[in-house]
Amino acid sequence: MILVGELSLWVALLMAAWGSTVSFAGGQMRRADLIESGERAIYATLAMVVLASIGLWTALLTHDFSIKYVASFTSSNLPIVYTIAAFWGGQSGSLLFWALILAIFSAITLWSNRTRNRELMPYVSGTLALILVFFLATICLGSNPFERLDWIPPDGRGLNPQLQNPGMAIHPPNLYFGYISTSIPFAFAIAALLTRRLDAEWLAAVRRWALFSWFFLTVGITLGMWWAYVELGWGGYWAWDPVENASLLPWLVNTAFLHSIMVQEKRGMLRKWNVTLVVSAFLLSIFGTFITRSGVISSVHSFAQSKVGWWFAGFLLVCIGLTTYLVTTRLRDLRAQAELESMVSREAAFLYNNLVLIGIAFSVLWGTIFPILSEAVRGEKITVGPPFFNTVNVPLGLLLLLLTGIGPLIAWRRASVANLKRQFAAPVVAAVVIGVVLFTLGVRNLAALLSYTFGALVLTTIVQEFSKGVGARHRMYGESRLVALPRLVARNRRRYGGYIVHFGVVIIFAAFAGMAFKREYDLTLKAGDAKTVADPWGHSWTFVSQGISRYNVLNREVTAIALDLRRDGKSAGVMTSEKRQHVDSRGAPTFEPSTEVGIKGSFRQDVYVVLAGVRNADDAEIRVSFNPLVRWVWVGGALMALGGLVVMWPAADRKRVQSGYVTVLKPQHLPPAQREPDLVGA
Amino acid sequence: MTLSRRELLFRGTPLLVGFAVSRRLPAQSATQELTGPMASAQDVYRPVKLEPKPGAGASMTPLERDDLEHRIKCQCGCVLDVFTCRTTDFSCSVSPAMHGDVLALVAGGYGAAEILTAFQTAYGERVLMAPVKSGFNLLGYTMPFMALGAGAIAVAAVLRRMKSRAPTRVATVPRVSATNDELARLDEAVRRDA
């Protein structure tokens, strides 16, 4: 099976190359047989990549240590779930995983468009096959997971202990889904540019995929933050690490696109901009992969330095060149179909929101590559860490939060002063009240203060919108408000799903702002020692060491500390934290020691304890952090994902009213006072 | 010349197969793993020692010192600051050594700015978690805002141009004058007939 898998890779490469060639040729020559052959080639590529994947999984599960990849990332005593997850734990396996998912997505795209978008599909399948060719060539020629060792080691090296975490088993696939699914909108964009069919048709085809990508990037990023928080032990969830940034970039661009696409759908505007965003999301996914795999920028997450990264750099440059050429030569076809009527309108607000989102994406990209730039210009290495990113991105993030509240309240086309007054009264009052209350309570951190103030504005906006909608249904259909709420969401999932996402954004910003009040302590405790420290809420916490214990479990040697906790003098339970030295099946150490964090969480704060190490047999060095509101980050992430699901959920088929249908109401005479005069823009 | 797909397949495949077979697989790096603390102290640690200021006491509280250590990057090869590295990763011998230097400088009466400068002199600018706000680095700090500003100007220009071309009155959406009751009956009628 392993040999079959290895050979399948080469056949898959040939199939993809064939598919790409005949798809483009078929599209150009308008030959149905070539187009059909190209599509079949993609299905065949999928079958071959599935075979290759089964081959690698077989090698992993049968512990075939003659294969270098298996020996490098697994060991006989590795739990089975991580043995399966080792498929994407290393460079070449993760590339094969990428090819597998891309082939699946490509096949789904072809299948779901077998009767639609037929003018575009030859170029869509050609582009997807070309991307597959790149990945399969990289695997076959640059990083082959089936490469064999000259000798067979008795056991493998095992998986890095930091990757032996349930979150890590599912976090990378989610991110990969997010990255890879940007390929589909990219392929449609290329097809639309090549065929000059740049109307709304291609957009309708890509919107769901862009949303799919956004959803999985959201889930992947949130899971990644959770993994970093519970596993790495440095006390936070986001460090502005280049690889973290790499995942944020396509997410930001996708977010911008999902807003601006509405403007094109409603008004036929921002056509150039939307093509650019779709292309950029894909290019940034490739850029992220280049960063992760080239070792050009040091990162805690990256794979070992490898030439494969430069393959991605080359591919990225080719894609940039090609898309720049296509876009610039089709500017005439991308002209807007409508003009903006007012700078105070929903479409203008989306434009401002896009500007800020892309501004943040640019600043993240800029900060990520600035060390390279600085070294090239000045010859001096510098570090661009969290202080830089916070300085630059906090103001931009706050501006974005403010726009999240403003945008949905402004009417399409043109907002009147009366409309603005009516819509903004409650949100502005709520924001001012929250700001004043927090200031009075002593909150002096400007970023946190603004974050909660703007958050209140957005939250009131959302509540106001739901309340209006539910009230309208209640009045029109006589539904109870509890019944009206889900029906309201079901009737307009895009709008109300979007509000759920905005609600998640507010929660996340509130949680981020909470970290401004974080407290950290560095304690040394002997068995029986007690140390008392204060948390940000003014409570005193006493940590009493119950001593150090050492024991062996499965594939690791554990050094653990147990701490008795007292909050304001009252017992608050026991916490433990561990240092783990992983060993192979012969007991030899593998990897650096890792940390198992002790977390006592609540919605108010996490008490976060890390055993840094032990000196002189029983002097435990521990770090205690009080991290306010962290749990709300996971809640916010879950809400955003839920909102995304609501938006994505397929619509039930509705019976359409025939065109030409006329409804005649019997006239009813009402006094003028009861008439609602202005329904424009409702 | 027109090639059928079968001809193309037969002619193209041997070429590709030949290339694939003749290609020798390049050697991969022996280890593919997460990077992390790996340097020993003697490789990368550089003492940062200054004579204590005469009659000086500790220049800052322990909390302020911890904050300062968040601004100094550990040189062990990790991507963490000194405080986080030394309190997270006990296997690192570099961050405790750097912490020792910070302690001595604080006890010697040196302020945060002086300590950062001393570290920068010993290690270079890379020892700081964020570049100093001067010279070329200013470009790093200001570029995102300049880009945003340029974007805002461009957007404003586009909007102004569009606005000037747009019709002054909206005539496409007719105004609807109806009571809630009328709207409800309309909706009900549409639903019933649909």
Structural commentary:
The complex is a heterodimer of chains A (682) and B (194). Chain A contains 19 helices and 9 strands. Chain A is an alpha+beta fold and 682 residues long. Chain A folds into 4 domains: 164 residues, no CATH class; 211 residues, no CATH class; 76 residues, no CATH class; 115 residues, Sandwich (Tick-borne Encephalitis virus Glycoprotein, domain 1), CATH 2.60.98. A 5-stranded antiparallel beta sheet of chain A has the order 2-3-4-5-6. In chain A, strands 1-9-8-7 form a 4-stranded antiparallel beta sheet, with no helix packed on it. In chain A, a hairpin with a 5-residue loop joins strand 2 and strand 3. In chain A, helix 14 packs parallel to helix 16. The N and C termini of chain A lie far apart (62 Å). The C terminus of chain A is likely disordered. Chain B is mostly helical and 194 residues long. Among the domains of chain B are: 87 residues, no CATH class; 32 residues. Chain B is 55% helix and 0% strand. Chain B has 8 helices and no strands. In chain B, helix 4 packs across helix 5. About 14% of the residues of chain B have low confidence. The interface between A and B is large, with 112 and 85 residues.
Shape of chain A: globular
pLDDT < 50 stretches of chain B = 12-38
Residue-averaged pLDDT of chain A = 88
Main beta sheet of chain B: none
Record field, number of beta strands of chain B: 0
| Helix count, DSSP H or I runs of 4 or more residues of chain A | 19
Helix-strand topology string of chain A: HHHHHHHHHHHHHHHHHHEEEEEEEEEH
Give the number of helices of chain B: 8
Order of helices and strands of chain B: HHHHHHHH
> What percent of residues of chain B adopt helix (DSSP H or I)?
40-55%
Largest sheet of chain A: 5 strands, antiparallel
The fraction of residues in strands of chain B falls at under 5%
Q: Supply the helix-strand structural class of chain B.
A: mainly alpha
For the biggest β-sheet of chain A, the strand order reads 2-3-4-5-6
Cα shape of chain B: elongated
- Distance between the ends of chain A: 62 Å
Rg calculated over all Cα atoms of chain A: 28 Å
